[in-house]
Amino acid sequence: xxxxxxxxxxxxxxxxxxxxxxxxxxxxxxxxxxxxxxxxxxxxxxxxxxxxxxxxxxxxxxxxxxxxxxxxxxxxxxxxxxxxxxxxxxxxxxxxxxxxxxxxxxxxxxxxxxxxxxxxxxxxxxxxxxxxxxxxxxxxxxxxxxxxxxxxxxxxxxxxxxxxxxxxxxxxxxxxxxxxxxxxxxxxxxxxxxxxxxxxxxxxxxxxxxxxxxxxxxxxxxxxxxxxxxxxxxxxxxxxxxxxxxxxxxxxxxxxxxxxxxxxxxxxxxxxxxxxxxxxxxxxxxxxxxxxxxxxxxxxxxxxxxxxxxxxxxxxxxxxxxxxxxxxxxxxxxxxxxxxxxxxxxxxxxxxxxxxxxxxxxxxxxxxxxxxxxxxxxxxxxxxxxxxxxxxxxxxxxxxxxxxxxxxxxxxxxxxxxxxxxxxxxxxxxxxxxxxxxxxxxxxxxxxxxxxxxxxxxxxxxxxxxxxxxxxxxxxxxxxxxxxxxxxxxxxxxxxxxxxxxxxxxxxxxxxxxxxxxxxxxxxxxxxxxxxxxxxxxxxxxxxxxxxxxxxxxxxxxxxxxxxxxxxxxxxxxxxxxxxxxxxxxxxxxxxxxxxxxxxxxxxxxxxxxxxxxxxxxxxxxxxxxxxxxxxxxxxxxxxxxxxxxxxxxxxxxxxxxxxxxxxxxxxxxxxxxxxxxxxxxxxxxxxxxxxxxxxxxxxxxxxxxxxxxxxxxxxxxxxxxxxxxxxxxxxxxxxxxxxxxxxxxxxxxxxxxxxxxxxxxxxxxxxxxxxxxxxxxxxxxxxxxxxxxxxxxxxxxxxxxxxxxxxxxxxxxxxxxxxxxxxxxxxxxxxxxxxxxxxxxxxxxxxxxxxxxxxxxxxxxxxxxxxxxxxxxxxxxxxxxxxxxxxxxxxxxxxxxxxxxxxxxxxxxxxxxxxxxxxxxxxxxxxxxxxxxxxxxxxxxxxxxxxxxxxxxxxxxxxxxxxxxxxxxxxxxxx
Length: 976
What we know:
Elements: E1 4-5, E2 13-22, E3 25-31, H1 35-41, E4 48-49, E5 56-57, E6 70-73, E7 80-84, E8 95-98, H2 124-127, H3 134-144, E9 160-171, H4 175-186, E10 191-194, E11 210-211, E12 214-215, H5 216-228, E13 233-236, E14 239-244, E15 250-255, E16 270-282, E17 286-288, E18 301-303, H6 304-314, E19 316-317, E20 321-326, H7 330-340, E21 344-350, H8 357-365, E22 370-372, E23 374-381, E24 385-393, E25 399-407, E26 410-414, E27 417-419, H9 422-426, E28 431-434, E29 439-442, E30 448-450, H10 460-467, E31 497-499, E32 504-505, H11 506-514, H12 520-527, H13 540-551, H14 555-558, H15 572-576, E33 588-589, H16 593-598, E34 602-606, E35 609-614, H17 622-635, E36 638-641, E37 646-651, H18 655-662, E38 675-681, E39 687-697, E40 700-705, H19 710-723, E41 731-734, E42 739-745, H20 749-754, E43 772-777, E44 780-785, E45 794-800, H21 804-815, E46 821-822, H22 825-835, H23 856-861, H24 869-872, E47 883-890, E48 903-904, E49 917-925, E50 930-938, E51 947-952, E52 955-962
Helix pairs in contact: 4-5, 4-10, 6-7, 11-13, 17-22
């Protein structure tokens, strides 16, 4: 296609040139150009390669229906794949590249695929690669999938979201949408009018077609001027309605800075709108269908409406020697406009034998040759169209008799128009097939209405009347001839392309029909018809029509596929909005965060909190730091910030009875000042959470939870009180962030605690293990519990969050005499593995029942009901071969800890087979000098002492099943 730019016309600024790069070469366009229009004006003909056969492809359309000109924009973190070039606005420095071509667009080595076309027909992957092993071929097929390349770096842009409630939302900025907006706005309604591109007026933008006695471009400007001056009107360009959902909600994606260079764009890149309107008007227009004939995919074959759009919007003539092939009137006007712009119209080929006399007369005045009752048989050329063979067409779509060749560099095709019914269908709207239009049109639906081309109405009088809420006789316009495909021998042609991007031909559809894939949904998935990035906007109706002809059924009996949102590919970022990073899951900091950072803590996220994993010293690895910290706690005293541990206050006359219902353990028998470890189940009987419950008073409890589960446990408590036990007098409050907690652990912990300025007696008799005391430390109110997750004498000291610094400084100062060592989460986890303590979420999963972790006897002794009790006693929960939590000690002499997730296999197994369980926690034990692990093992409690093989990341290991506790089994160290 030898496209060129006119020196006049188009909505571009010729005084403002823009330099950009395409495939590494520099080109020049103008402000107002798109990437597609600028390259078309520069004479670029081949712009892409098809997905399957890598055939050369050229520009076909002028909107979101473009299937061929798909590009990768930008580089690095801001690269964006699979953009449609007609919607990529030029900006200075734009850098675009083709997709699906290697090493270059002109020399694509994978074009060799076409030589093997007979071996890779539609759905070949369902019928091939069965021998010798599918796994040999799968990586290659998966690597070949897709078009562009997703960015490997995090998206540096940010996105916005907002909502709107208005009287009238109008989707579509053509004359129907503009007229509807004007009518609603002058009635006093609040109006939002959106259009996908930067141009208003739709297909008539920039043309001299008459609208209510004015040239279309003048009429459009006048209406826009009026609407722009009205305060109750919001005009939104570069905004695509992506979805139509329940209760009339419409999602809009507004492109805010995509048309600007990355260095100039400030603020959000895109904005997602959720709009609810009293009245929704869909003026989304219609999509032009290609003709299906041999060679119709060659560069230089274009939709007639697209050529007209590039002429009037951008001042670009798409070719010099033009042949127009059509089934309807619309392409004639494209031919007339191009002829008046200076192009040589070689001929108009119309399948109709008797089109409008007025059209014939105008064509003859312009000296255009007419070929009526004829159709294109084949587009000729290699990398671009050079000529077209035409011949007489029968009613069945067969070329009859001799053909003749017309030389051209641009072949325009027009196979009819399909109303853009996507938003209508997404909302559940029904369609019927209009024989006059030869397209699916929407049936009336409640809550919204379709007008103009979207309703199958292409007559301006009735379109404008409908836009203004008036009743007028609908004038569809001229009859469109029915022609789904053109062949030379009567059979669907394997070189006649239906889906250009996915390389689906009329022959592929015939193959699917022969293999009995007769449902349109089966056809779609078997051939990939309509599954490309354009979602079949230009191909679906032709494909359905061809299938109907093959099956001998009317097209309305075939039906359409389901239209799903989004209407056009939309960045994930705009759906996330501000909910990324800290906006999605804020990272919470400890009360003494700055102190930990100053001490060189290696911070990591645990349950949403940034906590020290360890405190590596100079030249020390993190593993070495953990080793040192464990030994320091075991031999002296360590300090650990436990502020993230969940703290929920439960208070009221019925608090004890309530907690009895929520926990497996009986809480009501707990005395004030005592603590009890307890587990909580979900309704399905599986372990939900665990923690230490402290009774502060007869009607007052402090419930401990895991660090990341405080909010979930609080919500569960409140839900049961709100929905089931509404008469219980209980108050629940999450106070996790109200109290900062320092945990001191080790043999010297009591000595350190006694050095604090406190009124709490720390002696073993006055303050034994699993008790709590309330008092003061340094004048601050304090709650202190003798609980331990390390297996050592421990004091868990809680003070108001704002007094955390005072407590911490007092402990560090007093601890200097005892070689106080800060330790992190990894050291804590290592010590709890040595002690065999459960960690919910690590040692449990969504199938773990209380009897699997040693709570079976406690559950049996509790006769009262509690949440999850009945579910835990289902037959599956009583199986003797259930997995239970046990310890593992390696026996193979390998000092490396087992990998979490490694599978335990039955003894004597030499080959992989269904596993008996898996490793849930694992660490090297600095205290014992051996690797230790916890595991869920089938019948684990009955297999103590058994040596089992373990499949660990491709290696065989051996370990012995042991008790959970491998350190201080008598518990003497807990009491100091």
